[in-house]
Amino acid sequence: MGNVFFSEPHHIFSWEKLGNIKEGREDLGEDMPVVVYRLLEYTMNHILTEEFGTERANELFRKSGFLAGQEFAKNLLDLTLPLEQFVAQLQKILRDLKIGILRIEEIQDNADQIILTVAQDLDCSGLPPTNEVVCNYDEGFLAGILETYMKKRYLVREIDCWASGARVCRFRCKAQE
Ligand SMILES: [Zn+2]
Q1: How far is the CA of 145 from the centre of ligand 1 (A)?
Q2: What is the tens place of the pLDDT at every residue in 150-163?
């Protein structure tokens, strides 16, 4: 193993750090059940909330989602497409990767205000109702994608969620000055 090239430390995220999954999991493959993803997400949420409180934990999830959204956009999306085609591309990839089914409900003022929904959302669809919106990671993820494509900052907040009793997650995205 004298020839192994070591990259920068594990905790510094880059797309390459996701590894060569095909090579590493030749029998098990690239897919795994949603329950495994949620197990990671909601145990992490439990511990972060215990350690730092709800507000801070939500913020940390948003920040992680934002980093994910930026890298996702840079590595998987064609950022040169006009808006309509960009949205179509995003819808397709979110569906292909089984993250959710994206619909744009409203888009105004040169995309400064967008209301969108995600149905069958990876993070929350099917959760027991707790009268909360829980998709903080998705808020950051969407903000990261929008900022990378639109080259302006967005504030994204979830206004309906499966966990709040709705059938889809609905997000309000507002460009920031
Ligand atoms: Zn949700």
Answers
A1: 17
A2: 999 999 999 999 99
